[in-house]
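Appendix B, Record 12. Input sequence as logged:
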Amino acid sequence: NDQVPVLALSAAQPTANFSVTAVEGGPAVAVAGADAYVTDADSGVTRYAWVQVQIVDALDGAEEALSMPGSASNLTAYYFPGNHTLRMAASGAAGGASATEVALAVRAVRYQTTAVEPAHPPTHRTLEWTVSDGVFVSPPVHTDVTLQLVNDLPEVDLSGPGDNSSESSVLFTEGQGPTAVFPQLTLADVDNGILVAAVVQLTNPADGAAEVLAATAAGGSGIQVTFDAVQHQLLLQGPAALADLEQTLRSVSYDNLLFGPGHPNEATRLLQVTVSDGQANSTVVTARVRFHGVNDAPLVDLNGAQPGTGSAVSFVEEGAGVLICPNAALADVDNTTLQQVDLLFDVF
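Logged structural output:
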């Protein structure tokens, strides 16, 4: 045995690097051709001690790895995460693995990164292969893995850190004025530091034009704040830094200008929030505005359907008694029972 083994990752181009594309978030990919082979110029039947492959530039650390699914005859796979090396060593009593067994093992190797956002630049990884016949080690050959990055959606959490839900709820008291609806909101986007726009949509404006959304743009951000009173939609238009859009969204307020007897309508309002990075929109999240009504005073109308609320009657000295307010009407928009009625007489 005086010849060095040779590993070819593709029979079509035995001296060239093998190239493959791995998609962010996608499945593991083969890193050698279906026709990869190993050869040795020594006469006789050559057996091989091991074949190994290493990720030379594993920028995503433990989130990227090599594997050999299944099993290979006379070869056992060992993965060493510390240096990102997969070694397939000869096993059994055959004195090593055959060229066919080594080739099948090489063809089965897979690469995958599970990183949410693979480290870049560069957007490629290099894999280095060697094979040994027990005496000599082959010259290294390489696989070039190109990483195809995928745009990740922006994420909106209305309740902020420390809460298991991404949605929120706020209480609005009749007549209290503008109320912040998601002051703990957080934004995240793993591959964009600049966001294009955000939309807050009031989906069920039961009181129509009396319901108003507003926001204050972060200082120096250039964010344009526009409220469409017909569509009940608040638009925050960038582009702007993620932190500036987050601050602006935290300032979003809801107000209902109706108050008094029977107002406002106390149905829970739904505010739907989306954010765009210019390529895709975030998943819709919802804030709920619940209402706390204020007790409305009962109304007394002593003359019923006649103009005004007072009444006047004449009493004739030594005459029969008269009804003071025979047409009186009582109303209470939030109570069907009343506790008492007080009558105060002045003599003049």
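The mean pLDDT is 89.
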